[in-house]
Design goal:
33% of the residues lie in helices and 17% in strands. It is α/β, with parallel strands linked by helices. 40% of the residues are buried.
Amino acid sequence: MTRLLQAGDPSPSVILNPEGTSPILLACEHAGQGIPSALGNLGISRDQLDMHIGWDIGAAALTRLLSEHLNATAIFQHYSRLVIDCNRPPEAPDSIPETSDGISIPANINPDNREARVREIFEPYQAEVSRLLDSDRYRIALSIHSFTPVMRGFARPWDIGFLFRKDTATSQALAAFLAKAYPWMTIGMNEPYQVSGQSDWFVPRHGEARHLPHSLIEVRNDHITDKDGQEKWADILAASFDHLVDEVSA
């Protein structure tokens, strides 16, 4: 069996603040732009990798700040979502996308290493998330993402979106706090995406499977492209997360 990952390639998962005392586990599936050395540059340019198709812009920095603010454990997946998307079932069409927002990804067209990407990146990352959530240390699971303001020519007006399916209460509590505290904010519920068992992993396979309060949170990436924006939104979200903890503990 030929291995995909080689010496010097990043680990499939990185855990920050493993001894954090917060009951929240933060996950960031699209934290990085890493590409296994065996895959070269996937056939795309650096500028294309830097776009929203290559990672969730600002999400990792925001998650790190939230970890600090809350003293929370966070788990990051640092390979580009173009190598394999760790918030998609491996059988989903966009798990290893041949195109993304109109841009062709040559190395993803009929790749002969699909199983290796699943086995060496997707499965180890999900196993670490499962290990953390099964430890009984965490009562809430939150996944941090960002989204592009314009996708396929359509403008997305939301400042933030909460994605959920069966657990409506967690996202509604977070949204209600933000709507009251920040009346200028445009909040989307199941925007800019809808969650399904066929297209998503974190919500159905981690949150719902364990009956944990959970939400997948999408911040519009033009808000968190620089340090000032990241710190502003970390303050905003940390306040809402603290409020959620109080509600769950009540």
